[in-house]
Amino acid sequence: MNKNQTINYLRQLKSYGQQYHDDLELYDTTKAPIIRTKISNIDELNDSISNCYLCELHKQSKHSYMPPQNTGAAIMFINDFATNHSDPFLGQSGKMLENICQNVLKLDKTQVYITNIIRCPIVDGTAITTAQIDMCSHNLQREIDMIKPKVIVCFENKISTRLNLKLDNTKLILTHSPSYLLRNPSQKQKTMDDMKKVYAILTER
Fold first, then answer.
1. pLDDT, tens digit, for every residue of 57-66?
2. The whole model's pTM is what?
């Protein structure tokens, strides 16, 4: 980790409430912007993530931001990592997710919030380290705390199984991702059963 990355990391820790030192001004101002020292809303969090250079993944990322979404959503979907397009409903897996929302959850796609554990798009074959997951999971935890969804649907993949979240008054459902179902159609029924559980949580009084 170079000097700029180290300072960014310390600034990020400070935004989570860590107290370690007065503000540092040793970074090179000709480089990309550093992470915000204070984050109070989703737009600021996304802006901070877009300017994150804490690990090598940013080098293969065209963007790491998320498009505007329904921050008042009662449900949050969590994918493993981002793709190189900003619309999560594109492609075959995106269409399947949209169908699940409409036909099982009885929700329009604008009524859900979708995020990723790793915000940088991953090139096939890229090995994700525990340290990288830990750095990104701090952002995810802050995102959950801001959105306060009633239920979280986390797609079980290699990265999500190494995730540790603190959830207050939020129920967590683990299930197969649409991309997994496209490769393994025989598992669709399990996911449909899981989504029925989600629907029951969303509609309970």
1. 777 665 555 6
2. 0.76
Alpha-helical segments (H) within the chain: 3-15, 42-50, 91-103, 130-147, 178-183, 188-203
Q: Which of 6-10, 37-41, 90-94 has the lowest mean pLDDT?
A: 6-10
> How confident is the model over 125-160, as pLDDT tens digits?
677 888 888 888 888 899 999 999 999 999 987 777
Alpha-carbon radius of gyration of the chain:
18
The answer to whether 116 and 157 have CB atoms below 8 angstroms apart is no
As given in the structure block, the two tokens for residue 202 are 């969303």
Domains, the chain, ranges and CATH?
3-203 (3.40.470.10)
Kindly list the distances between the CA atom of residue 16 and the CA atoms of 126, 146, 162, in Å, as whole numbers in the listed order. 28, 13, 21
Instruction: Give Cβ neighbours of residue 130 (< 8 Å, ≥ 6 apart).
Output: 162
CB distance 122 to 128 below 8 Å: yes
In angstroms, the CA 112 to CA 179 distance is 18
pLDDT at residue 6, rounded to an integer: 67
Could you give the 3-state DSSP secondary structure of residue 78?
Answer: strand
DSSP class of residue 27 equals S
Q: How far is CA 76 from CA 106, 109, 159, 185, 186, in A?
A: 15, 11, 17, 24, 25
